[in-house]
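queue> pop job 88
queue> type: inverse folding (structure -> sequence)
queue> payload:
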């Protein structure tokens, strides 16, 4: 068994099968009698084998916040996916075939100018999803989505997401509240980049990234951070050295270890707290399920 969780009287378990019709299947155990669910129905006699551990869908905050009825309907539509560092999930103006739900990965939403310069407008991790334009009706966006920190996640086909949004009900309210929180992050990022020092921007960026990771370490080069913040690499180097001398972080070969989170919170501007409070206000609290 790779992982499981209980939903009512059911226990869901993820396995891998050699059956050519379906790579992954959900095993729903009821009264010790197992049946398999997926795009197609599999027979119990099909050989099953375990693979590497995959973080469960409920590690994503939005998926974990779904009512049980909607969650049962969504589960067979979620495809596990590895998200590699630097992987582009969608380009500016391109039609989005999927919506992504990160579990352990972090995705940056970037605006790229004609000369190739870029700046991050928002960061998405296990608290949300990538691809709001799919259910908002646009189908595409002028921004670009790039994996900032490698990890895992799930994706759902765009047509399925549109159908779910059209059902209205609690799913719509949840997705709209998340969209409002994401818009707040975008607006606050614009204000921060215009009015606050690079030291403060770096602290905000580190804290937002930490909130979406398990642990206190980020794997990130200074060049990549500079691209995210839309500044020169030399500026990031100077700001990182200041934080390191203050004892807030240690940095070596692309690995950033946060040693004093409280120090970062005291050094950053109000933008981090504004964004955090809005996410906490609009999204349901994380609870075990």
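queue> result:
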């Amino acid at each position: 068994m790779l992982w499981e969780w209980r939903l009512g009287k059911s226990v869901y378990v993820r396995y891998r099968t050699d059956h050519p019709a379906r790579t992954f299947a959900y095993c729903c155990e009821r009264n010790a009698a197992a049946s398999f669910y997926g795009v197609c129905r599999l027979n119990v006699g099909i050989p099953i084998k375990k693979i590497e551990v995959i973080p469960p869908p409920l590690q994503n905050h939005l998926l974990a916040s779904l009512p049980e009825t909607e969650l049962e309907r969504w589960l067979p539509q979620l495809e596990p996916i590895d998200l590699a560092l630097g992987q582009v999930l969608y380009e500016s103006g391109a039609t989005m075939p999927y919506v992504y739900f990160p579990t352990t990965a972090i995705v940056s939403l970037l605006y790229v100018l004609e000369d190739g310069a870029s700046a991050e407008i928002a960061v998405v991790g296990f608290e949300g999803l990538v691809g709001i334009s799919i259910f908002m009706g646009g189908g595409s966006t002028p921004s670009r989505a790039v994996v900032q920190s490698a990890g895992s996640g799930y994706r759902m086909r765009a047509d399925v997401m549109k159908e779910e949004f059209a059902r209205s009900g609690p799913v719509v309210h949840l997705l709209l509240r998340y969209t409002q929180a994401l818009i707040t992050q975008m607006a606050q990022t614009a204000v921060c980049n215009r009015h606050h020092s690079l030291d403060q921007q770096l602290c905000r960026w580190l804290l937002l990234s930490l909130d979406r990771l398990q642990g206190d370490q980020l794997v990130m080069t200074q060049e990549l951070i500079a691209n995210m913040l839309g500044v020169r690499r030399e500026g990031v180097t100077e700001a990182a050295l200041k934080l390191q001398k203050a004892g807030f972080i240690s940095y070596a070969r692309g690995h950033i270890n946060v040693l004093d989170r409280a120090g970062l919170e005291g050094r950053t501007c109000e933008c981090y707290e504004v964004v955090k409070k809005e996410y906490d206000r609009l999204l349901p609290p994380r609870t075990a399920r």
